[in-house]
Amino acid sequence: MRPRPGDARSERSRALHRTGALSGGTESPRWLGTVLDRLAAVMPQARGQAIEGAGYIPHVTHPERYVAGLTRFIGAV
Question: What is the domain count for the chain?
């Protein structure tokens, strides 16, 4: 059965075709890289950034670099 307009499944499906920012760090746990790779595979418009030296919470540990990357992303879309 196909999702009806307004159905949560339909909304989620449309969201996958929008651009998005995916971020992590070069020191993130391996599982996060796997998750980001899988998200990127189903979100062809997504753009990613890996922050050198950061773990899985780069917005907390490396806020300046995180914000710089997010600013570049916003400026590009």
Answer: 1
40-54 residue pLDDT tens? 998 888 898 999 999
pLDDT-based confidence at residue 36 (cuts at 50, 70, 90) = very high
What are the beta bridge partners of residue 23? 49
- The C-alpha atoms of residue 43 and residue 13 are separated, in whole angstroms, by 10
Give a yes or no: residue 41 inside a domain.
yes
**Token pair for residue 64?**
């300046």
Domain extent, residue 36, equals 19-76
Token digits of residue 43: 């979100």
| pTM of the entire predicted model | 0.70
